[in-house]
Specification:
Layout (H helix, E strand, L loop, with lengths): L5 H6 L6 E5 L3 H8 L5 E4 L3 H4 L11 H12 L6 E5 L8 H14 L3 E3 L7 H9 L4 E6 L18 H17 L3 E5 L3 H10 L4 E4 L7 E4 L1 H5 L16 H19 L2
Parallel strand pairs: 1-2, 1-8, 2-3, 3-4, 4-5, 5-6, 6-7, 7-8
């Protein structure tokens, strides 16, 4: 199968719903790569799904580099986008240095959070041949309490700010933008108003694509899943059952 490119993702706008799924290691990367999803996101949700942190802003660049390297060993045919962790893109030079580290680790593109306040950073990366995915609406790296996770864009001020963010991210040269917890009517308006694909998470059905967390999709977590997650199995319970069966069998044989 031919490698999926940024150009292919852009072509899919208004043609086919794009799917992006996170992955964090060789096994999850292998499974997602064998699906029909177009994009693998090496997400900083690694912090909450794998490293045991409460919030994503605890993730370090070394964590994402290691995850990107392990997934790249699969022989990825999808577009692989790696998150730039909290405080790794505060200046243009810092952003470029860290983005290059992720590209060297195997990423095809990077994703960073922020709208109009990050357009200079995005544009600088693009001018240096780094493919960038934007992320607006709720920005998890700026969240420090669960109550901050709420739908944005329901009032005129939020609506105008988020719409302006989308237009600025587009004009800065990003090839797509994630809309997280954005009011569905606003998501529809943004999707119809910009030329790059929108990828939603809990932002309604009118975006060009959807992203979900690997662990949420397969039900592989000891924690309660977020309201906006989708789950199609419960592998956590199955794994616990398998481990318990092994332990019980071993102990029976020792008697």
């Amino acid at each position: 199968m031919n490698k999926i490119s940024v150009e292919k993702i852009i072509e899919l706008k208004n043609i086919s719903n794009i799917t992006m799924i996170t992955a964090y290691d060789f096994v999850s990367g292998h499974i997602v790569n064998n699906s029909d999803a177009e994009i693998i996101l090496v997400g900083d949700s690694l912090g909450t799904t794998t490293l045991g942190h409460e919030f994503t802003n605890r993730v370090k660049i070394e964590d994402i580099i290691r995850a990107t390297q392990s997934i790249s060993r699969v022989g990825i045919t999808k577009l692989m986008v790696s998150d730039m962790p909290f405080m790794t893109y505060e200046t243009k030079d810092l952003a470029l240095s860290n983005a290059l580290r992720l590209i060297d680790a195997g990423a095809d593109a990077v994703k960073l959070e922020g709208g109009k306040e990050k357009t200079e950073i995005i544009n600088f990366l693009v001018l240096n041949n780094i493919k960038v995915m934007g992320h607006i609406g709720i920005k998890p790296q700026s969240v420090d309490k669960i109550s901050d996770y709420k739908i944005l864009g329901k009032n005129k001020i939020e609506e105008n700010n988020i719409f302006e963010d989308a237009k600025e991210v587009e004009s800065s040269g990003a090839f797509s933008v994630v809309l997280e917890l954005v009011d569905s009517k606003l998501s529809k308006n943004i999707t119809e108003s910009i030329s790059i694909p929108t990828i939603g998470i809990s932002s309604g059905k009118y975006t060009d694509g959807q992203v979900q967390v690997y662990n949420d999709l397969i039900g592989y977590s000891p924690n309660k899943l977020p309201k906006h997650s989708k789950s199609f199995d419960n592998l956590f319970e199955k794994a616990q059952s398998a481990i318990n069966s092994f332990v019980e069998e071993t102990k029976r044989k020792s008697k």
